[in-house]
């Protein structure tokens, strides 16, 4: 299956909510939440994408020839590329009922597994929004990272236990969903968490815990203090707060503060292998991608997800050759031009 075919098929299925634009940059869909856009003016999503375009790559091919290694090790597992599918919840509502959360997760987890990477799964107001994706993780021998909303502590801890029982290698929590009043209106309040709350949650499990939705140096230091395995530098794809900086803008200072002491993931507007290269150069260990993975899952199921992953993986490889890098550790800050 060609990637162009994946995009065309997706367009037919999701066109009411997502136009599958040539550049997935948040302009056409701005303000559409529910839907696929960024909140309010859409500026947080738009800026995420725009600021990545502003980073340029330094070309240098005067280096000995040797094999290019794009692999990364996390939670004791080796992945082919430093790229992961971000959690996308309530796909029926946000994209199209052509897939429900179960079928969607099957496409994401199956395709990621075949391409040698891993996908994060979502959570929501109904138990099934967490349980069905988790069932897919179990059916794939634990190949998936459940992402839990910042519910009350007891519920988070119970959901982490379920993740352990189903063989997940790690869990994540989208702490930046703390302000989602829609969930409270539906009778399931979420809320902010103190360092003490997070310590209690993190120490309830042996699984590595990733905190998703950190946008400041101070926030990263607090996550480290709480014992997190890693953070996702993320503004939830611009869906939780209007007028944030772009994730690529805040990444370098966060990396300066905590790199090497915890894993740093980043997401928001990353689309291509060149974008992944830029993220790693500016301090990320790995990148999460949201909307393009959703389009790939609608357009081609697990195969679409695999095709997209391999496409951006090859782009990363090509970029590494052109910038004189043999492995991810070679992708240092001096490889980009700001
Ligand atoms: C429709 C939609 C639903 C999402 N649902 C969730 C979710 O349930 N949990 C979560 O942690 N993040 C969720 N996100 C945010 C993504 O995980 C990710 O942070 C964001 O999409 C990254 O930006 P990108 O789409 O520009 O790559 C959602 C994003 C979209 C577009």
Automatic annotation (TrEMBL):
Positions with a binding annotation for glyoxylate: 239
Entry keywords, A to Z: Flavoprotein, FMN, Oxidoreductase
UniProt organism field: Alkaliphilus oremlandii (strain OhILAs) (Clostridium oremlandii (strain OhILAs))
Keyword Oxidoreductase: yes
Cofactor (UniProt): FMN
Family (UniProt): Belongs to the FMN-dependent alpha-hydroxy acid dehydrogenase family.
Classification via PROSITE patterns: FMN_HYDROXY_ACID_DH_2
SUPFAM superfamilies: FMN-linked oxidoreductases
Gene3D superfamilies: Aldolase class I
Ranges where the FMN hydroxy acid dehydrogenase domain occurs: 37-338
Pfam families in the cross-refs: FMN_dh
Name of the protein this chain belongs to: L-lactate oxidase
Active site: 236 (proton acceptor)
MF GO annotations: FMN binding; oxidoreductase activity
CDD domains documented for this protein: alpha_hydroxyacid_oxid_FMN (cd02809)
Residues engaged in binding FMN: 212, 234, 236, 267-271, 290-291
Domain of life: Bacteria
Chemical reaction(s) catalysed: (S)-lactate + O2 = pyruvate + H2O2
């Amino acid at each position: 299956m060609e990637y162009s075919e994946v995009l065309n098929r997706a367009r037919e299925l999701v066109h009411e909510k997502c136009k599958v634009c040539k550049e997935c940059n948040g302009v056409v869909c701005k303000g559409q939440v529910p839907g696929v856009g960024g909140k309010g003016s859409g500026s947080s999503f738009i800026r995420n994408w725009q600021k990545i375009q502003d980073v340029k790559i330094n070309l240098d091919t005067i280096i000995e020839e040797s094999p290019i290694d794009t692999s990364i090790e996390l939670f004791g597992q080796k992945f082919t590329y430093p790229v992961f599918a971000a959690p996308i919840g309530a796909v029926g509502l946000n994209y199209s009922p052509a897939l429900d959360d179960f079928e969607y997760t099957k496409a994401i987890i199956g395709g990621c597994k075949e391409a040698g990477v891993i996908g994060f799964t979502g959570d929501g107001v109904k138990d099934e929004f967490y349980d069905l994706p988790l069932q897919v993780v179990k059916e794939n021998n634990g190949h998936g990272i459940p992402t839990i909303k910042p519910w009350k502590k007891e519920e988070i801890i119970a959901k982490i236990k379920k993740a352990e029982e189903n063989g997940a290698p790690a869990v994540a929590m989208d702490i930046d969903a703390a302000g989602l009043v829609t969930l409270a209106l539906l009778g399931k309040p979420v809320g902010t968490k103190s360092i003490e709350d997070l310590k209690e949650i993190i120490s309830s499990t042996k699984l590595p815990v990733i905190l998703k939705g950190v946008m400041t140096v101070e926030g990263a230091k607090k996550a480290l203090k709480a014992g997190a395995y890693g953070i996702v530098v993320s503004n939830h794809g611009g869906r939780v707060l209007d007028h944030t900086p772009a994730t690529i803008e805040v990444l370098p200072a966060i990396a300066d503060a905590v790199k090497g002491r915890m894993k740093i993931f980043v997401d928001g507007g990353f689309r291509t292998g060149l974008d992944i290269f830029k993220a790693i150069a500016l301090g990320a260990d790995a990148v999460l991608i949201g909307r393009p993975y959703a389009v790939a899952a609608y357009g081609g199921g697990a195969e679409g997800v695999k095709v997209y992953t391999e496409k951006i993986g090859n782009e990363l490889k090509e970029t590494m050759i052109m910038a004189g890098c043999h492995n991810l550790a070679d992708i240092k800050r001096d490889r980009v031009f700001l």
